[in-house]
Structure formats: C-alpha cells, structure tokens
Known about the structure:
Elements: H1 18-21, H2 24-34, H3 40-47, H4 51-63, E1 67-71, E2 79-83, H5 85-88, H6 91-104
Antiparallel strand pairs: 1-2
Amino acid sequence: MVKRTSHQDVPCGVARPLDAIGDGWSLLIVRDCFGGLTRFGEFQRSLGLAKNILAARLRHLVDHGILEAVPAADGGAHLEYRLTDKGRALFPLLVALRQWGEAYCFAPGEAHVRLVDRARGQPLRPVDVHAQDGRPLGPEDTVVDRSGIDGR
C-alpha cells in the first residue's frame, strides 16, 4: 500500500478516520462484508482487485480493528474476515454515502442497486442529522468546537 500522510495526530473527527478507511477499496471491502462476504476469494471476485492489493487492504482493516481474521467456519485452512463492533459502526456512514451517490452520481432513471429494508423491501429513509433534542440540523446549524485544542 502506498504510504500516505497520517492524520493520527490531527484533532479532527473527519481527518483521523481517514487513516483507517480513507481509500475506496477499504470502504468497498467493508460494504462487501455487510453484504455477507467473508473470504479472500469472494472479495477478489466482487472487486476485481489484485491479490497483493487486496491482501494489504485486508491487513490494514484488521490492524485498525475494523475486521477480524478468524479461522474458517468450515474448518478449512483459510481465514475469514468478519466485521468487529468498530466495523459494524460504519454502517450509517456507508448508508449515507450510498444515498448521496444515488442522489448525485446517477442520471435520472439510470438503473442502480438499492439498499432496502429486508423485512419490507422498502428503501431506507434518508440519513439525516439531529440535535440531541431531536431538532433536524443542517450545516448552517452547526459549528466546530475547538475549545480545549491548543489552549483555545
């Protein structure tokens, strides 16, 4: 994997996670895990990714605690990759990214896969942001609080 600048010391909740999930292949692997894929070969077939790149991405996700490598359920010699609690917590992020992509990355009427409620087959409500008291919030309703950073 190409060495990138680390954001580990940046006091920003957007920058820091990029060290763990900041490349597209990693997010697609996590997406595939939510879809039930667990084995190296399944990821390779789904993504068409070179073995060395896939292996590096899987190692990276394991190192960051997003996936865990476990012995195969069938008792085989290979490993399976499972989402950890930290990895499962990425679900709302992937739903929001998917919904943004559906809204802005397809032509009107263009066919695409959809994420639906398993029980009812209905599309999900759009992900939105609410204040602790339940009020809907937009970007104009928020501010980055820098208190406590560098003595501010």
